[in-house]
Amino acid sequence: MSLPILRASEHLHDVKYEIRGALARRAEQLEREGHEIVKLNIGNPGAFGFRMPGSMRVAIVENLHQADPYSHQKGIFPAREAVVMQQQNRGVMDVTADDVFMGNGVSELIMLAMRALLNPGDEVLVPSPDYPLWTASVVIHGAKAVHYPCRPENGFVPDPAEVESLVTDRTRALVVINPNNPTGAVYPRETLAALAGIAERRHLVFCADEIYDEMLYDDAEFVPAATLAKNTLCLTFGGLSKIYRACGLRVGWLVCSGEREHARDYIQAVELLASLRLCSNVPGQYAVQTALGGRQSIFDLTRAGGRLHATRAAVLDAAARSRYLSVVTPQGAMYAFVRVHADRLPGGEKAFNDQAFALDLLERKHVLVAPGSSFNVPYRDHFRVTLLPDAEQMADVFARIESLLDEYAAA
Residues in the chain with pLDDT < 50? Predict the structure, then answer.
């Protein structure tokens, strides 16, 4: 007797995460067949030889003897207090350890924050392109992600007037990802101030994903959103995964700042959800105080001569020499969002499909990238790469991409 089909929850019908989707599964199959795949689809520093600072490893080992029990649902006090001190050093003076939640990475905290906030039919303003977890975290709870455009011709910086035009009486929150994934844009102070003003006027929760806060290039300036959003609830998300190259520790934090008295019920709901998962990874939390209080080694990687800076230069050089590609110079984070000028290929823009291109690139050149449409944009002529390989390997990757596009052009 055959069993009835076991179907997935309807909540997942509109949830997409192509960064680890069908293309990544095909890459695994090719690896099992003996092929070496260059995986540029995900920002995973450890896979490219990066290591967390040694002082963080020491902090974990030295405290393992007290990491066996559950911690408080919000996290261990030294980690939360270290986050408070970081916020105060940035000019956010109205937070205490009680305003900080530690999580199993920022991803878990985004889900908790949205689950505590949203009802079916609510709306959240999310950038386009976005990190797709943000859209998923909204739609999985029956709400609607309303995407505000961050256009390539504007350096992927949003127009605040256009953002405000999308606010309705169902809008609950405004999300900002700065420095931005996938584009590398770093928002000017005036843009962030305008967006914070929208959140204040329209009584929205201002959600600031700042996981790449200190990963900056050249003269780019990072402005913490919490220094601008004073008269509404501001949620700031940060963690150890990117700046400190410690993805596997799964340590992130959420800081509640700004106006909070009106949001007590909501904040208590976040704590309830934090309690239901008992606590986040305790050993990893012991690395937070050391990470935030010591020398910031990320600057050695992003300044001129550093590895990330050199790889970024290799991408910019390859795009400048390409017959088919262009890229808006990333000012922060660890990605480049590259455009394919399909009008230079047979069939033009209507014939080019970023998903099909990414699959071809994987099958024929053994390079895995993330198609631009994975990031909730209406166009299909971009792809995202990480800046994690060294410059030599990245130059080789773009030579393979150029070769594939030459094959398209000759077809």
Answer: none
What is the distance between the alpha carbons of residues 64 and 284, in angstroms, rounded to a whole number?
Answer: 10
pLDDT at 1: 73
Residue 33 Cα distances to 37, 177, 363, angstroms: 11, 38, 12
Answer yes or no: do 17 and 148 share one domain: no
- Strand bridging mode 370-371 / 367-368: unpaired
Indicate if 270 and 351 belong to the same structural domain.
no
**258: part of which helix (H) or strand (E)?**
strand 252-258
Reported pTM = 0.94
- pLDDT value at residue 182: 97
> For residue 208, what are the contacts with CB-CB under 8 A and spacing of at least 6?
176, 178, 224, 225, 226, 229, 234, 235, 236, 237
Task: DSSP letter for 9, please.
Answer: P
Q: Which residues contact 4 (CB under 8 A, 6 or more apart)?
A: none
Does 335 lie in the same domain as 271? Answer: no
Q: pLDDT value at position 292?
A: 95
Give me 8's structure tokens: 């997935």
Please tell me the total count of domains within the chain.
2
Kindly write down the DSSP assignment for every residue of 111-124, as one continuous string: HHHHHHH--TT-EE
Q: Is the domain of 270 the same as that of 339?
A: no
Q: Could you tell me if residue 401 is inside a domain?
A: yes
The CA distance from 354 to 13, in Å, is 22
How high is the pLDDT of residue 105? 95
Q: What is the pLDDT of residues 241-281, one digit of tens each?
A: 999 999 999 999 999 999 999 999 999 999 999 999 999 99
Domain boundary among 293, 323, 341: 293
For position 241, which CATH number holds? 3.40.640.10
